Automatic annotation (TrEMBL):
GO BP annotation list: protein ubiquitination
Protein name, entry field: RBR-type E3 ubiquitin transferase
Keyword field contains Zinc: yes
Keywords assigned by UniProt, alphabetized: Metal-binding, Repeat, Transferase, Ubl conjugation pathway, Zinc, Zinc-finger
RING-type domain boundaries: 18-248
Entry's transmembrane regions: none
Listed Pfam families: IBR_1 (PF22191)
Catalyzed chemical reaction(s): [E2 ubiquitin-conjugating enzyme]-S-ubiquitinyl-L-cysteine + [acceptor protein]-L-lysine = [E2 ubiquitin-conjugating enzyme]-L-cysteine + [acceptor protein]-N(6)-ubiquitinyl-L-lysine
A single MF term (Gene Ontology): ubiquitin protein ligase activity
Length: 261
């Protein structure tokens, strides 16, 4: 999205004299502040930018995401509090629909025909597009990861032979810093970003709460330290701030695939 003029709340909004908690780049927006339903404070411009960021990440819903807050804002609230323009509304609604389709059906757009394609074999990055195959008169397969026509042998689960085909999520898991848990006993060298063991989406822990976290996508609660589902982790030691029954799980080298029922 292009840079836009700053938006400001008028007297019809109930404003508060508090800091904008979503001004992550310290841009010091001029608008008065207002409180979202979860209690956190925004300006319309900072809220718009944050929600655009979520959409660019592939989200179809808007979760506050402040430390310890997993409240999901209804789109109607976002639309009102972000003072969305008609153009922004169209972008938000179209992108939400596309992202929801991808999440529910594991679909992406073919780089050849631009139509939505659903991957049947989640263990193979090479995907055949039936439309392009028919139009071109030859087998047309593309890489699910880099979205270019397939190069190299198959099946492959890590990358194709196109230059620059890399799994950004795995790179993030490999390079992220360690979390500094303030309240959990005996935890060292725990990565600050994990792939949810149920659905594979990347989640980050600030280190300021207990060791458990609820995934914003699949809504399953798991232990960030040992990567077990919370109910399994707590069977031996029910203390949310105590040590796990096993050691800190190492950095993940693969992304779990969500086996939806």
């Amino acid at each position: 999205m292009n840079s836009k003029p700053e938006k400001c709340y008028d007297s019809t909004f109930q404003c508060v004299d508090e800091e904008d908690q979503f001004d992550f780049l310290c841009e010091d927006f001029a608008s008065r502040r207002a409180r979202m339903s979860c209690g956190h404070v925004v300006t319309p411009t900072s809220l718009t930018k944050y929600c655009e960021y979520l959409l660019e990440k592939g989200e179809s819903t808007f979760v506050c995401g402040q430390p310890g807050c997993t409240v999901e804002w209804p789109y109607e609230e976002v639309r009102k509090m972000a003072l969305l323009t008609p153009e922004e509304k169209e972008y938000f609604e179209n992108t939400m629909a596309v992202n929801a389709l991808k999440a529910c059906f594991d679909s992406k757009f073919c780089p050849g025909c631009k139509y939505s394609v659903t991957r049947k074999d989640v263990s193979n990055l090479s995907v055949r597009c039936q439309i392009c195959t028919a139009v071109k008169g030859r087998t047309f397969e593309f890489c699910w990861q880099c979205l270019r026509e397939w190069k190299g042998p198959q099946p492959r689960i890590d990358r194709c032979d196109n230059e620059g085909c890399t799994n950004d999520a795995l790179k993030t898991l490999r390079d992220c810093p360690y979390a500094k848990f303030e309240n959990v006993k005996g935890v060292t060298q725990c990565p600050s970003i994990r792939a949810c063991p149920t659905c594979g989406i990347l989640v980050e822990h600030t280190g300021k709460q207990c060791k458990n976290i609820t995934c914003r996508q699949c809504k399953v609660e798991f232990c960030f330290v040992c990567l077990k589902i919370t109910t399994e982790c707590r069977k031996v030691n029910p203390d949310y701030f105590g040590p796990c029954s096993t050691d800190v799980a190492p950095r993940q080298t693969s992304i779990p695939i969500w086996q939806r029922n």
